[in-house]
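Quality-control log, excerpt.
Job 1 of 2 completed; input and output follow.
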Amino acid sequence: MTQVAIFLFDGITALDAVGPYEVLQRLPGTEVVFVGLEPGVKYTEEKNLGLEASRSIDEVPAPDIVLIPGGLGTRNLMHDERVLAWVRAAHETSRWTTSVCTGSLILAGAGLLRGVEATSHWLALDLLREQGAIPVEDRVVRRGKIITAAGVSSGIDMALQLVELESNAAVAQAVQLSIEYDPQPPHDAGSPKKAPQAVVEMVRRAAKGNSR
């Protein structure tokens, strides 16, 4: 049985955790466990949606796959020694240590990304660099057994890559088909390189307001 530990915390971005969960729980022989500093409900940044951690990180010390989602809550957790110690210890024995969005800031805080190419939400790449990583603008970046995904929805792409690494391409394709993951957005504005500059600045202003 492959054990996947998805770390939950207050201030999480829900899709960062739920997207990979929806993919990975379909991988045969896999147990997906939601963990937190303590068991209980963890709320999103807006506090209008809760996800429940069924176990504490102390109860899941050595998962096969570590998955750290992002969200504004990562800004404090990237300096939380209890979280960082768990990440370091779990990484020693994990097959894959992964993050989605600003979850990579926690990996960096644990010292796992020093001098390592990694990605995050495009608005957090400078902060990732300050933590010693080498920012890469790719949607999914795999370096050794560390896999980082860019913002929010990219966690689904990363999880599908994990399914292939744990099994094969056919199983990954079957999972993709089962969730009917066939993105066809109404606008080609999913990255700052593609979106109109006015829209990029709109998102930057909103992010600055939310971080206050």
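Job 2 of 2 completed; input and output follow.
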Amino acid sequence: MRNRGLQGSSGFTLLEMIVSLLILGIALTTIFRLQSMSVMMASNIQFETTAPLLAQKKMAEYMIKEAEDLASDSGDFGDDFPNYSWTATVEEMESEYLDTTAERLRVINISVSRTETSYSYDIQTYRFVEPQQ
């Protein structure tokens, strides 16, 4: 039997190890980036489904208020929806085309936002109020 030395060894060369580690590094980086994007998208989707419902709830509260109680305000949704807050603005309608009717319209804007992100959801409606006597 002849001694083959290093030529007959069945191990990996240094170049093969470096290439395999490079491929593994690229694959893991891609997987971690996809996971990060997935978490971010899940947070966005949660806001996009929750915020409209909260805004509609707050808008419904403003629609049933007495006309004299309509005022701008802000707050949060309590322990049920932590990190969600709302801002409501009530303004008189201004329109040269509606004449005296504009005086009886109120513009109600509701904005729902999430405190740890820059997400915001806004809705607007108009409410007809009886003239004050």
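Post-run check on job 2. The first strand starts at residue 73 and ends at 77.
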